[in-house]
Amino acid sequence: MTSLGDVLKALEAAYPPATAESWDAVGLVCGDRAEPVSRALFCVDPTESTVDEAVEVGAQLLVAHHPLMLRGVNGVPADDPKGALVHRLIRGGIALYTAHTNADAANPGVSDALAGALGLRVTGPLVPAPARRLDVLTTYVPVADAERVLDALHEAGAGALGDYRDFAWTVDGTGQFRPVQGANPAVGEVGRLERVAETRVELVLDRALRAEVVRALRAAHPYEEVAFNLNEIADLPADTGIGRIGELAEPEPLRAFTQRVADALPATAWGVRAAGDPERPIRRVAVCGGAGDSYLSAATRAGVDAYVTADLRHHPAGEHLASGGPALVDVAHWASEWPWCEQAADVVRTAFGGTVEVLVSTRRTDPWTVGATSRTGGPLK
Question: pLDDT band at residue 381, thresholds of 50, 70 and 90?
Answer without folding.
Answer: low
